[in-house]
Amino acid sequence: MKKFDEYAYYYDLLYEDKDYQAEASYIDQLIKNYNPRARTILDLGCGTGTNVITLAQRGWQVVGVDFVKRAIQSARRKADQTGVSAEFVVSDVTRLEKVDGDFDLVLDIGCFHSLDTRERESYLQNLERLTKPGSTFLVYCSIYSG
């Protein structure tokens, strides 16, 4: 856990050149194409909240979840600084006991592939509990072979 806490401390510095606006535009377009009635987004593994903030600025109601307290503290601070209304929750994506709602869309950029098989099963059960029928699941993940 400590390594993730340290990673959260440097996360924004490491990704300062990442074009979050372009990524949010891409996600925004995907949502409009595949689930045009979507209004609520759950971002799993939100880190320091940049995607949550960027999507909230575009009018979405967004809840960001990460198990690293320092990352969520940073996300809340950034949201306050930008005047964005978004919810941030410290929780494990395999439990999500602190998250309620019926989300139209779940976004996962880099979290699912880090889970083992048992954790993925719990993760998916939570998605079923937290999403509306016909919801969209956008996941960016790596697939390892060999």
Describe the structure.
The protein is α/β, with parallel strands linked by helices. The protein has a single domain, classed as 3-Layer(aba) Sandwich (Rossmann fold). It has helices at 2-14, 20-34, 50-57, 69-82, 117-130, and strands at 40-44, 61-66, 87-90, 103-109, 131-140. The chain has a five-stranded parallel sheet. α2 packs across α3. It is globular, with a radius of gyration of 15 Å. The mean pLDDT is 87.
How much is the radius of gyration in Å? 15 Å
Our measurement of the CA-to-CA distance between the termini, rounded to an integer number of angstroms, reads 27 Å
How much is the average pLDDT? Answer: 87
The CATH homologous superfamily corresponds to: Vaccinia Virus protein VP39
Classify the beta-strand content into a percent band: 15-25%
Number of domains: 1
Helix content estimate: 40-55%
Quaternary form: single chain
List keywords for this structure.
single chain, 146 residues, alpha/beta, Rossmann fold, five-stranded parallel β-sheet, 5 helices, 5 strands, 44% helix
Topology (SSEs and partners):
Blueprint: H1 2-14, H2 20-34, E1 40-44, H3 50-57, E2 61-66, H4 69-82, E3 87-90, E4 103-109, H5 117-130, E5 131-140
Parallel strand pairs: 1-2, 1-4, 2-3, 4-5
Helix pairs in contact: 1-4, 2-3
A few lines on this structure:
The chain has 146 residues and is α/β, with parallel strands linked by helices.
